[in-house]
Every structure is written in structure tokens, then in C-alpha cells.
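Example 4.3 (complexes with small molecules)
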Amino acid sequence: MSNQPISFEPPRGMRDFYPEDMAWRNRVFDAWRQTATLSGFQPYDACVVENLELLQRKAGEEVSEQIYCFQDKSERWLALRPEMTPTLARMIAARQGQLPFPVKWFTIAQCFRYERMTRGRKREHYQWNLDIVGEESVAAEAEILACAARALRAMGMPDAAYRIRVNNRALLGELLARLGVAAEHHAAVFLALDKRGKIPDEEIAKLMAAEGVPPETAAKAFELLAIQTLDQAATLAGVESPAIAKLRELFTLAEQHGFADRLVFDMAVIRGLAYYTGIVFEAFDTERKFRAIFGGGRYDSLLATVGGAPTPAVGLGFGDVVVVEVLQELLGGAAAAARDGVAVGFMFPEQRDVAIRLAARLRSDGTRVDLGLSPQKPKQFFSRAGAGSCRSAVFLGPDDVANGVARLKDLETREEREIQL
Ligand code: HAM
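Answer. The structure with histidyl-adenosine monophosphate bound is encoded below.
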């Protein structure tokens, strides 16, 4: 260690969670857990350290380049996971003979990515993963999105404040095939087109050229992104397009689930991960001021890629960073800090036993109590209680104990009522 004073900051891109930050984090985690459970998803978990080999893909994706990796003392290549999906695929493949498919699983996983730091992007985040493995039909996409919409409502996000944008890679595939782009190049074209708006179009065209896509075809691929509506896409893809049928079915199911008002078709949603094979989606704030709130899609080939039997799958990753930014802007920075419970204090050592017994009684009744640990002056006690997280306060002096009655003060309304000691 050098003689430099140690910095009070966490490493760049990593976060400390002070109690006021935990209030927001818990609001989000509680909504995730409650809605996943309510929708019949089961929890699972795995270690944040994963085999590097499982996480690396050769597809030219951003995530693969952002992995925090290291060799352990036995020279094994390990990594801090950048996402949960490969681990989920590994865990499912390991028990494929025993699981009652379709399985519906969820987890809240801390993930690490060596990102260029911008708003909404950290080098560590928590990600709610909600996945259905073993279901071919669009009912799975609908179930996942319905659950995510419920979670947003549970966090206090107004329905009007966000939109879920959907597309289908199979639709892009059908359209690219019509342009004469061979199927083996589609995955690379998707990843290239996903970079639209992030890097100049000439760079994207170069990426496609590297895949053997001729410049005229690349230009046509860009034109596909100008398609505005599902009907326009249907005209190009043809009436019997299976990809269009899937999207239409999703819109119908969304009506039944009750989130159709927030679902929109968007040809520009392609996603930056190589393993998606079908419907893909991303949720954004309606004004598009922030990064994606969540993203996901169908990945029917990943189980086979990690060595399992071919199994259809669909899921989403929903991070804790962007949603809190959006909620704080909409609801105000202090909105998560709901006050509840009672602060209990006392003036002299003689009142301490009564204060402890009062705290014990209230706690047994299920009331949250912040008990003062040493005698305090009234001003000191009320100023700490006022700045704290309790809704009301009781301060015991000699008279209160002598009379067996104390005053419970509401710290917001300033109203008082008597309680028996
Ligand atoms: P992803 O789009 O890479 O997908 O990440 C999903 C979400 O995680 C993003 O929409 C965002 O909320 C959050 N997120 C990602 N990177 C960061 C970051 N550096 N800082 C803050 N938040 C971040 C996946 O990871 C897929 N594995 C999701 C999935 C699950 N697909 C199927 N199942």
C-alpha cells in the first residue's frame, strides 16, 4: 500500500449503497420479487464467478469485450458474470432430464461489465432475470412482459411513462432473405444494425462488408429500419409471414393481460446479444430521455449451444440503474424514503428500563422501533428523530414514568396522543 491517503470513493463504476440508496434499491427489489412470485416464477441463484469459456461468444458483441476476467491460482480462467443467461442455460442443461418444462425462473443477479461510463451505465448493476424455458408459443413472451409491466406498476411507475418496444428477429431474417442476404450472415447483420445511432452508418456498413454483405444490400438493410408500422412490415414480408403472425398474436395476448396500451412495434429494436432468435423487446421511458429500462427476447438455440438438448426459451433482464433514474425524475428523489415506526428515547438513566420495555412491547406487536441507547436531552433526541426514518417519537422523562403515561408525537403532523407505559 502506498503512502497516499485511501480514497473514500468506491472503484470507478461500482456503487456504495447508503441507507437512502437502499430505500430505492429495496423498492425495486421488492417489486421484482413480489411480482415474479405472484406470476408463478420460482427463485434460483448462482455464484457471480463463472467459467470464462461459458460467457465468451465469438459474435462481436459488446458484452463479450466487457468481461471482467482473471486466472485463479490453479490458472483457471474465471470471470465476474456480465449477464445471467449463459449461467441459466448451463443450470438448465445440467438438469434437463429432471425439470418439469416449461420452467419459469427468476433471480436478482449482480452483474459486472467494463462499460464506458455514461448515464444509466455502471460497471456493476443488479439485474432481475425472468425466464421461461421450454415453451414455444408466444404465450411465454406475453407472460414475461405482463410480469415486467406489473413490476413497474408496483414500483410506482405510471403506465403512461414507458413503452415496451417489440420486434422479431425472424421478421428481419425474412426481409433480409428477400434482399438476398444469406441466412449465415443474418446474425452479424443484426449486431451491425443494432449499433445504429451509436456509431456512424459508414462504420456499420464496414462491419456488414466484413461479413460479405455487398454495399447495395447493406443500403437496403438500412432501409428496412425505416419501416414504421406492423402493417407496413406485413406488406413487405407477405401475408403468410410466420414472424408477423407471432407479433400479431403477442399484441392480442397483451390485450388479455392488460398491457397492450404500453406495447408498440419498433423495427429498430434488434438487441446487441447474438443468441436471440425471435421476438425481441426493450422498454424505454416514453420521452426517450434514458437508456433502456429492460430488454430481452427469445433465444431458442442457446440451450443447444451450451451442450443441452434444443429447448425454446424466452426471458428478460431488467437492471436497477435506469429504472431508479426514471422513477427519481418522475416521483422526486425522496419518494422511496417512506417513514414508519417509532423512535423511543429517555432523559436520565432512571428511565432506561421503562424505555427498553416499551420498545420490546412495540416490537413484539410488529412496530419498527429505533431505541435510544443512552440518555439524551429532549432537543438532541427530537433533532435526531426528525432527521431519521421514524414516523413518530416517544421521549420518556421522570414525570412520564411516574404517571405511567407518555406522549407519542407524529413527526410529520406534530400531533400528539397518549400511550400507557
Ligand atoms: P441486456 O440488454 O444486456 O440483456 O441487459 C438487460 C438490462 O440490464 C438493460 O436493459 C439494463 O436495464 C441493464 N443493464 C445492462 N448493462 C448495464 C450496465 N452496465 N449498467 C446498468 N444497467 C445495465 C441481457 O443481459 C440479457 N441476458 C437479458 C435476458 C435474460 N435475455 C433473456 N433472458
